[in-house]
């Protein structure tokens, strides 16, 4: 089965202040916060987290640690996800194990599952920016093709991702904690 060979390291440049208050680069290295969801599945790289809004720039502590699907309560997460081609992993992909690795329970996903594996919902507003390749955003009803440069605003809906090409797709995400979207019925 093809998989993402070695995930491209995502360079993370972080700014801060020196002892005199002058702006400086405090970190310039690949992000060490990488999770391969399964042996052949998507690769998640977290770049930064905030734990409330407004964010607190006073701390010099590293905000990232364990990778979780949803942002912290009242906070945000900035990440890059590499999606391998569906043909390389979807048939044998254990979506429950993959999401459990990110602290998300897919209980009931079978009843929500639309046209793709990995349908999920988080109480967040997600800004998805396609950096490379193309990927389908799949909803319970309908789907749309996104290509490099396209942006999707996901508002707490059940959704999934489908890469129907032969190349990996790379998508940057900013997830903001949000109140759940009220279901309309």
From TrEMBL:
Keyword Isomerase belongs to the record: yes
Example of a GO MF term: isomerase activity
InterPro entries: OryJ/VirC-like, RmlC-like_jellyroll, RmlC_Cupin_sf
Keyword check for S-adenosyl-L-methionine: no
Organism domain of life: Bacteria
SUPFAM superfamilies for this protein: RmlC-like cupins
Keywords, sorted A to Z: Isomerase
Protein name per the record: Mannose-6-phosphate isomerase-like protein (Cupin superfamily)
Species of the source: Pigmentiphaga litoralis
């Amino acid at each position: 089965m093809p998989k993402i060979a070695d995930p491209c390291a995502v360079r993370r440049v972080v700014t801060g202040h020196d002892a005199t208050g002058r702006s400086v680069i405090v970190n310039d290295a690949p992000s060490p916060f990488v999770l391969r969801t399964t042996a052949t599945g998507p690769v998640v790289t977290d770049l930064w987290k905030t734990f409330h809004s407004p964010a607190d720039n006073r701390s010099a502590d590293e905000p990232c640690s364990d990778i979780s699907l949803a942002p912290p309560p009242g906070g945000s997460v900035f990440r890059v996800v590499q999606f391998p081609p569906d043909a390389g992993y979807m048939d044998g992909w254990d979506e429950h194990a993959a999401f459990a690795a990110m602290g998300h329970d897919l209980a009931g996903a079978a009843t929500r599952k639309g046209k793709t594996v990995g349908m999920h919902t988080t109480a967040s507003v997600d800004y998805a920016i396609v950096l490379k390749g193309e990927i389908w955003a799949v909803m319970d009803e309908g789907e749309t093709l996104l290509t490099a440069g396209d942006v999707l605003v996901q508002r707490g809906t059940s959704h999934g991702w489908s890469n129907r090409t032969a190349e990996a797709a790379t998508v940057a995400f900013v997830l903001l904690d949000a109140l759940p979207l009220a279901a309309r019925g």
